[in-house]
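Supplementary Methods. Inverse-folding protocol.

Structures were first reduced to a discrete structure-token string of length 302. This string, shown here, constituted the complete conditioning input.
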């Protein structure tokens, strides 16, 4: 892969970087961020893309100055595998919620039916987020309102689903395996709900695992128990990986000095909207094209 972890002996000295965790079911994403903060002895720790407590898989944790690059990681495509259970919806669109509407008409469903319905769901350009979500409603999180028993109606939002496939279907249990490639802000829980409705029945997401974000793969991640004891510091990867998907802008010594001081740079005819600015192998930050010049968007001053 184009992104490699730093060599042994060097990463332990780093305080800024990317940590790939293979999240188990149970803890929240915030729980793992707090654990990394304690283990690394640094306050600036965040993650790029929440996983629900019951979900497993790749959680990208940003440490130190790398936290300032979170919004660029959010641009990356995400991959998931999941299990859809037909027969009923829930208040949260996954197995953590209370059952609501039930329907047994799925028993006449074939795999071909599921594939056709999933294709229709993929073509949807907007998606209604789950009521139990972090979306804002009149300044409050939707999940807080839902847990108080208040009715929550969220407006559909634009989403991008690049690929949506059926990996398995068990007609006796009403369980379908799905594989999802989507953009940021897409709820796989809502895909499961919408799949049931597209089939004229009801469904929810029974299990979810995130397998990749951009070029990062869960197979390269470490389990939290190991990461937060001895292998964690050694597993810290260069923060340049967080912007590896952006075009690279190589700066001279003088332009690097100007960039560090927040000064604009001549774009020299380039049209890339965002670029990762480097002096040699050192990532200096991210610049944004404005009126024919590159203006510093994030400066990673030490």
């Amino acid at each position: 892969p184009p992104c490699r972890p730093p060599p042994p002996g060097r990463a332990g000295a780093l305080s800024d970087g990317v940590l790939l965790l293979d999240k188990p079911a149970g803890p929240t994403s915030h729980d793992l961020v707090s654990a990394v903060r304690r283990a690394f002895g640094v306050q600036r720790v965040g993650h790029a893309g929440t996983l629900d407590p019951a979900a497993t898989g790749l959680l990208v944790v940003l440490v130190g100055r790398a936290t300032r690059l979170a919004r660029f990681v959010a641009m990356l495509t995400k991959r998931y595998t999941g299990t859809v259970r037909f027969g009923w919806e829930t208040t949260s669109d996954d197995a953590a919620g209370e059952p609501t509407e039930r329907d047994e008409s799925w028993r006449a469903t074939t795999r071909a039916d599921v594939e056709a319905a999933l294709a229709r769901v993929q073509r949807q350009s907007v998606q209604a987020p789950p009521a139990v979500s972090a979306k804002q409603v009149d300044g409050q999180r939707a999940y807080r309102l839902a847990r108080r028993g208040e009715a929550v109606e969220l407006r559909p939002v634009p989403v991008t689903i690049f690929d949506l496939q059926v990996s398995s279907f068990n007609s006796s249990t009403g369980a379908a395996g799905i594989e999802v490639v989507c953009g940021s802000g897409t709820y796989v829980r809502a895909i499961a709900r919408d799949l049931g409705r597209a089939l004229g029945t009801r469904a929810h997401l029974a299990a979810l695992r995130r397998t990749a974000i951009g070029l990062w793969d869960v197979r390269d991640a470490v389990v939290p128990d190991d990461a937060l004891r001895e292998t964690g510091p050694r597993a810290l990867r260069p923060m340049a990986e967080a912007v590896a998907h952006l075009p690279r802008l190589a700066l001279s010594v003088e332009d690097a000095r100007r960039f560090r001081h927040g000064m604009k740079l001549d774009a020299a005819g380039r049209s890339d909207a965002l670029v990762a600015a480097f002096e040699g192998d050192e990532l200096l930050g991210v610049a944004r094209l404005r009126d024919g010049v590159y203006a510093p968007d994030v400066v990673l001053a030490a």
